[in-house]
Amino acid sequence: MTAAATPASSPATTGERPGVRMARSRRNAELSLLLLAMALVAAYGAMVEANVLDTVTPGFWVPAATLTAVFLGMHLVIRFLAPFADPALLPAVALLNGLGVGFLRRLDLANAAPEERADLAIFAGIGGRQLAWTLISVMLAAGLLALMRDHRSISRYAYTLGLAGIVLVMLPAVLPASISEINGAKLWVRIGSFSIQPGEFAKLALLVFFAYYLVRKREVLSLASHRFLGIDFPRGRDLGPVLVVWVISLLVLVFEKDLGTSLLYFGMFVATVYIATERVSWLLIGLVLFFGGAYLAYVLGEAVGGPFANFYLRAQIWLDPFAQPYDDGYQLVQGLLALGSGGLFGAGPGGGQPLLLPEVRNDFIFAGIGEEIGLFGLSALLVIYLLIVERGLRAALAVRDSFGKLLAGGLAFTLALQVFVIVGGISKLIPLTGQTTPFLSAGGSSLMANWLLIAVLLRVSDAGRRPVDGAGGKVTRPSGPPEQLHGAPTEVIKP
Amino acid sequence: MNAPLRRVGVVVIVLFGLLFANLNWIQAYKADEYRTSDYNGRVQVAKYDRKRGNIEAGGTALAVSKETDGELKYLRTYPGGEKYAHVLGYEPVNGSATGLERAENDFLAGTSDQLIVNRLRDMVTGDTTAGGNVLLTLSKRAQDTAYDELRGNNVGANKGAAIAIDPATGAVQALVSIPSFDPNPLASHDTDDATAAYNRLEQEAGRPLRNRAIGEVLPPGSTFKIVVAAAALENGITKETNIPAGSSYTPPTSSEPIGNAAPSICPESQVTLMSAVTESCNTGFAKLGGQLGPDVLKEKARQFGFEQEDLTVGRLGEGGLSVAASRTGSMENPDGSPDPAALAQSSIGQRDVRMTPLQGAMIAAAVANGGSQMRPYVVRQLLAPDRTTVYDTANPRELRRPVSGQVAADLRDMMVSVVENGTGRNSRINGYTVGGKTGTAQSAPDRPDHGWFIGFVLDSEGKPISAVCVVLEEAGSGGSAEAARIAGQIMRAAIAEPGGR
């Protein structure tokens, strides 16, 4: 819906004559889209109250107004620190984030005793906590924009981030289950009542490392030695790092019992390798390795069980969730029933029965929302996600340096893949795995990590859309081989 | 690197296209299946979201929904308890409803097409449409009397049924089946409790969940003689015609002699049809049936309502509690020729003749109503949720005409004679004309007999007030006399009911 209001901005590519093209920041378009998005969030809040409370309280607009203030702050930060950033990103993300807060507040209303519903405090319950997390996340994103004035500067910390990423990924796997396991998946680190999902941050750190590593190695990885069926395959010794990532992702699959995270890391890696090398063979190798590995895990799970049993069980549930509708298949069955009950138009915001859904605040939030806004509403949400992803890819196309291209392209694809894994999981397209739904699910880790991701995309799109004779007086290099990165790679490794 | 980036963009669009297609599959194609799935808790929550309408009789609420604090907003309760259980049925949280709760579910739940105006209005005003109310024809006095007298019968029968209908309209005045059950535990929101209560009732020997008044067929015994007498009156015999009788009769090709209930009954070789009915003379009717033949008997029974498989008692015109078909059974040999033994036994309501208590009451009602049998119904009126608009008022209509007015008058005289001078004396009421016919039916060789009574009461002007059928299963000796007494009590209650004349 927001796409129509945003005229396509032509990125500065070769052939553009400086001086003829009017560099337009489009910040005012961003502002008006943002206000439109917040008006939608306020309307959603009013509809929820009308349905749940049978009346609209005088203070229905307060959560939406708080969010508007937070996002307006972010808008101002962008206006000053990244004036040429893509104007559609912030409003689209703000809309998703706002609807997420609205839906979680709706769950609070449903959970509250009837007499307490009308005066539910703004920061009360999971909705209020999500509102607070939004504030923190947006501040983090603004901080990242302020600190990282040029996206290439983070390449200096690539190895540090790579190491940190691997540690974050493996951390829940090596910790005892009492600390790391929730609902059968070891993805967490729990300290008291506070729990974080290190994997959410790991994907960002790893992607920076992948982008840096692949830009350096792209020539080597592009070298072909075998030609088979018309496709160039890489040399055997160059497969090393790919195999390492493959093994790590399978270890994640087995020890963290989570197919989604594993698929996410591996897909992320294969996509960046493909973007860097332009070799289809890497895609094929990646797909064969992943599906081969998953099939192997399935067969082993059936035959020997042990660490593979969880994956085998999940695949069985996926194949026939109604076989055990009250036991193993309960979550998926209830998710499908919620989506089906919503039908085309949904029960209306606040009109559904989301409390019948297990994990409705996390994994199944898309099904819970889907019951109330129906197929049409969910399609709109998918379009907004698609808009964010395609805007991220557009930033990758527009930016001139290879590191930026890989970084933005990889991040955008990762976001798309995560949406695919969780939405596909709850709608029985693929086996269900515990992933958060970006910007909607309750939880600080996911929200912070995804806002940091958006901050990076904003930074890259700003670099891409900034005029060549840029207002910032910065010297921007034309696209081409990444000489600068070739120049100073390894000596800046600092822990 | 731009070419692969563009291709990644295409891949993303394909992935999202898959999600979109899959959501279409689930939310459009499979939506109805999922929405109504047995595993979908929304089905029950939605059902209990609006107040279900009352079921009432004579201004007394028999089934009401009470507000609760739970997730299911309304609890169905039955203040009428065991007395009305078989008419009302019950509405459980899980599983299907029974009785009128099932038959009138659309109106009670407020989903009926008739309530579309209310729903549209409430859509504007934002109220939740409550269900409509169903008003019954039952007379509280008659129903209470029937239940209490059946339960307290002095022959110790613990199974039985009683039904009373207004012969002029077909309105059911009382409908009782014992043993009965308390429907309240079955409607409990604690589904484990409800299931346990159901299983207990299901396993009870007396089968309390069964509605014997309309759902069970038993051999009617001598009450069937009214049907045979009607056939005789239409075939050249008058009530004063002498018919062959005797103390014992062994039909041709049979080795089992048919005797009378007592040696004092029709030992003469000839008795009038009138006294054969009055004394319940078995030999006379066995011979009479043989004379009339199976086709005439079966046709007469059919005209009284036997063999009808689709009769329902509920709202006139549609739905309701389904009534079991009464049967005359076979009276022929395999080659199609009449079987004299079967014919003789069928003529006194034995062999394969089977009748519901409702059918018995309908025979008496047709006789009392000058030969016109009205369609029985129990729903008098459908009342809007706001109790102002009446949606459906029963408009009584004739179901069939089993006998002519003249034959009906003769049958009435004979049945009155049964009560005045014969076996049905227990049902006499001062100041009113009561007619009836007792019946004692053998159930199985080693089991006690069933006691029957079918009858009617007319006011001093000859207008019918009530037609009643009472059956006491396996009541043994004195069963039919006790049934007659109970029928008399029910008729008194129907007379005493305000507006019951």
Automatic annotation (TrEMBL), chain B:
InterPro entries (alphabetical): Beta-lactam/transpept, Beta-lactam/transpept-like, PBPA_dimer, PCN-bd_Tpept
GO terms assigned for molecular function: penicillin binding; peptidoglycan L,D-transpeptidase activity
GO biological process: cell wall organization
Annotated Penicillin binding protein A dimerisation domain residues: 52-134
Stretches with biased composition (Polar residues): 241-257
Domain Penicillin-binding protein transpeptidase: 160-491
Chain residue ranges for the region called Disordered: 241-263
GO cellular component, one term: plasma membrane
Origin: domain of life: Bacteria
PANTHER family per record: PENICILLIN-BINDING PROTEIN 4B, PEPTIDOGLYCAN D,D-TRANSPEPTIDASE
Protein name per UniProt: Penicillin-binding protein A
Organism: Micromonospora sediminimaris
